[in-house]
Structures are given as structure tokens and as C-alpha cells.
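Hi C.,

You asked whether I'd gotten around to modeling the 124-residue construct. I have! Everything is below, sequence then structure, no commentary in between.
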Amino acid sequence: QVQLVESGGGSVQSGGSLRLSCAASAYTTTNYCMGWFRQAPGKEREGVAAVDSDGSTSYSDSVKGRFTISRDNAKKMVYLQMNSLKPEDTAMYYCAADKWLRSGSWFRSYPDYWGQGTQVTVSS
């Protein structure tokens, strides 16, 4: 069983930055694919970014070039650095993890483990 706890959400103005963190509570998540989804009110859940155990990453087109995902296996942490934020980035952001997925298939999948979410609000 993997428990995920997100932190770092908040309110920023357009063009600002935030860094989300996700702490995994498990014996090990080293070989898990980990990443982020988001969901805005009235919209479908959207995959944002994912990182494999070897560091390979994937990003949605909507955040590519602005967001950076990283992980620290020793600390069992995953991070999402979000720069040049836009009002359309406003959403609840969820950390997720799955032992069998790979980052290339992240956006079409539903990972096994999810956090409770952290709210990101970007004002214009």
C-alpha cells in the first residue's frame, strides 16, 4: 500500500511559480512511476507529468516547457516545479503512483495510488 501526501499548492498571479511536493509513505517506491494529474471544476481529469524510476519524463502539451517534474528516490519524494503559470492551470493537483505504468502511458491510464490533492489557483 502506498500513501501519497501533496503539499505546496496555493494562490499566485499569472506568470508566477509554485513547487508542488508529494511524499510517499511506503517501504519503497523506487521502481514506481510517479506523477501528477489535475482536475478543474467542470472539466475532465488531465494528466500533467510523470517520471519513471530511471528519470525518464513525460509531459502534457499544455505544460511542456513550463513545468518540470523530478523525484528523489532516497527521500521518496516527487516534485512539480511550475513556472509561467496561467489562469488555465487553476485546478486541484493530485499526486499518483503506479508500479506497472510507465511515463509514456501515464496520460491514458488510471494509476493505482492517489493523494488527496492540493489546490492551485492562478489569478490573471
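If it helps when you're writing up: The radius of gyration is 13 Å.

Thanks,
B.
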